[in-house]
Amino acid sequence: MNALRLAAIALIVAGALGLGYGSFSYTKESHDAKIGPIELSVKDKQTVNIPVWAGIGAIVAGGLILLYGSKKS
Asked: N or C: which end of the chain has fewer CB within 10 A?
């Protein structure tokens, strides 16, 4: 299996996951404070929404690469 085919399959899987989940969250530490023996930290939870058009576009692009990318001229 060549690199082009692997990239196409990765695009299709990423597009399907984007359509299935729709968003993902992660936690980011934004502030740290150390005052003597006391340590304070603030963690913000961030959510990233994945647009439907991006998921569909990744699936279509991966499919096109699978169909036309491996044909030799």
From this structure: C
Residue 73 placed within a domain: no
Cβ neighbours of residue 66 closer than 8 Å, sequence gap 6 or more: 5, 8, 9, 12
59 inside domain: yes
Q: How many domains does the chain have?
A: 1
Domain membership of residue 7 (yes or no) is yes
Q: For 1-70, where are the alpha helices, taking DSSP H only?
A: 3-21, 52-68
Structure tokens, 60: 């279509």
Percent of the chain with pLDDT over 90: 56
